[in-house]
Amino acid sequence: MNDLPIVNAFKRMPVPLMIVGSDGRILHCNAATHGLFGYDPDVLIGRAVFDLLPVTSVSELNAHIKPPAIDAVVKGMIGRKCNGAPILLAVQITAWVDAEHGLQHALALRDITYESEAEKATRDELKRANNAIRGARIGVFEYDPSAQSVIVSDILRELMELDPMDTADVQQEWRARVHPYDLDIALEPIRLCQKGLRERASCEYRLREKNGAGWRWIRMDVAVAKRDKARTVTRLIGAIREITERKKVESELRRSEEQLRLAFEHAPIGKAIVGLDGRWMRVNPALCDLLGYSEDDLLKTDFQSLTHPDDLHGDLHRLEQLKAGTISDFRVEKRYIRSDGAIVWGLLSVNVVRNARGKPDHFVSQIVDVTERRRLDEMKNEFVATVSHELRTPLTSILGSLSLLSFMDAEPLSDEAKRLLFIAQQNGDRLHALINDILDFEKFSARQIDFSLSRQRIINLVESSTLSNLALSDQFGVRFNIICPDRSVSGYVDDKRFQQVMANLLSNAAKFADTGSTVDITVENHEKAVRVSVTNRGCVIPDSFRSQIFKPFSQAARSSTRKRGGTGLGLSITRQIVEQSGGTIGFESDQNGVTTFWFTVPTEEPMQGTTR
Question: Where is the Histidine kinase domain (predicted)?
Answer without folding.
Answer: 386-605
